[in-house]
Amino acid sequence: MKYLIVGLGNIGSEYENTRHNIGFKIVDALAKASTIFFEPNKLGDTATIKFKGRTFILVKPSTFMNLSGKTVNYYLQKEKIKPENLLVITDDIALPFGTIRLKGKGSDGGHNGLKDIIRSLGNANFARLRFGVGSEFVKGKQINHVLGDFALEEQELLSERLEKAIQVIKGFGTIGLGRTMSEFNGK
Q1: Catalytic residue numbers?
Q2: What values do phi and psi take at 72, rounded to 5?
Q3: 1, 27, 98, 110: which could form a disulfide with 161 (CB 3.0–4.6 Å)?
């Protein structure tokens, strides 16, 4: 059974440690923990992990965040993966820092990357892992917050939260969406 795991982010060193790039950071952590490496491919960098009889195809789109739909659609088709086996990882300003929320479908929540994926797929029926980056910003300065680096105290807690996100991804593929949501949401 194959799963497409897409971490959202923006390419370029200036975005590398920003809150908006948490999707990249999570799939990077999973690849590192699995001692595999990403390789450049069409529309993004990819890596493949085998875990408990499942194949996880990790993708970091090389399109910018707001154009992620093209990459997601391409890899679903190329790898012949059913949309119910798609997991998109994104930042969420509505959640406190480090809070993890797994959902089976839903709106874009104002996130332009999710908005483009929904537009490209023609529906919102795919799982998403939202990672809280907090809402500690002045009204109207949301872009500065998400494109800013994690605060020092957040950086100190990040490795433990990344490990939790890896467990969610593995659970999604092995014990299923419902059980994984029950076990990890809000924790």
Answers
A1: 20
A2: -60, -50
A3: 98
